[in-house]
Specification:
Elements: H1 3-52, H2 65-99, E1 134-138, E2 162-166, H3 168-172, E3 180-184, H4 203-212, E4 226-230, E5 236-237, E6 240-241, H5 242-246, H6 253-273, E7 283-288, H7 290-301, E8 308-312, H8 318-326, H9 329-333, E9 336-341, H10 372-375, H11 377-390, E10 395-398, H12 406-410, H13 414-421
Parallel strand pairs: 3-4, 3-7, 7-8, 8-9, 9-10
Antiparallel strand pairs: 1-2, 2-4, 5-6
Helix pairs in contact: 1-2, 6-7, 8-11
Length: about 425
Amino acid sequence: MFPSTKMATQSSCRNNLNLNININRKKHLEDKYNGDRKVTQLWLVLVISLCCLVPIHSYAVNEGSNDTSRLSRQAQVLQSAKNMKNALNSESNSNANTMMSPRSTTATTLRTYQLKTPVRDLKPPFPDGLNGGRLVTLPPSEHYNQNSNPSGNSFILPPRDIKVWVPAEYDKHPDMKFPVLYCHDGQNAVQDSTSWTGYSWRLAGALTRLAERQLLQTNELCAPPIVVLMPCAEDNLAFVPRRHLEYGDISQTFAQSHADFVGLTLKPLIDSKFRTMPEKEHTAVIGTSLGGQASLHLLLRHPDLFGKAACMSPAFQPSILTSVATFSTSTLQDKTIYIDNGGDVDDVKVAFLDPFDHLSKEHWWNPGYWWLDSQLQPGIDAMMLALDLKGIQYEYNKIAGGRHNERAWALRIDKPLLALFGRTP
């Protein structure tokens, strides 16, 4: 072989070797970049997963202050995720510029991550407590004993404090008005610690969750309504619970006095002290058991003041059934009426004992009332027949195996709230 040919062959081998080394080095850098990028992306996915997997059910025990602490922790995690995303973008751009040759026309495409605050579950049990709102206490001097009629008689209606739950949005938007929900047995509605059975309806928790999803048709914010928590009397009159008198059959004086007190004394006071929507279409009332009967009573006795009523496991008695059947159709024609109850349905029976009824921190002796919703079914059937004969629209839900207590009502409290304030399709 000639010297020139030998030198050319050696030069070609060296060039091929250098080319292979460069290709291998470039491949190694690409593998390292892709590996580092995948590791960084895995860390980002892990951070986002941790953010989404915040244990939501802890809210079923703690009060509304936990919402603030959870949101604070969640904001920290989201900020960490955003910082990691920015670092990933910066590192990717730097590595891409280093690896790409001047002749390369291939660009590295980066995936865009859209980070959103996770929406909390809408399933019960909803969180206990005020859920970011606050309570305003109205002493008896502001509302009871204000009238000369029976509703102002302290013997018929013993004076007591009335509390008003104001949602967090009320203070954040001082120019905005809110609808109002009047709540019978108000001591059982919001806080477990004040409820007879140690479980509340979790009313504030349900309202805030519905508002988060903008499922409420209330105002521009879709915010929760103001809730007036009207406690029942808890003493007896000649061995008869006063609650049974105040929320009793609508033909007797105690029940009529209670309805007049709510409509003629309490409602004007609430409308004067708070930024409310005073019209009847923005004024609703809710109650359970006898409180359900008292709620419908307000629509019958003051149809110009109240436009919506939710009756959960209602105890309808003869006089209110007769009134619905004989009143003018126009009295309830434009009203929103919601009725539900539990009880036995075919093969689904209410259990004699539910151990979870007795695990509350307060009042572990919760009786459960396993028989009561089935016992009340004939009165509910009669009410629906009367409404049907009058051509009155209403919504009815039957919960197979449902018990007659606050814990059972808390498991379906979102349904009447959507019936009263939910967005129409």
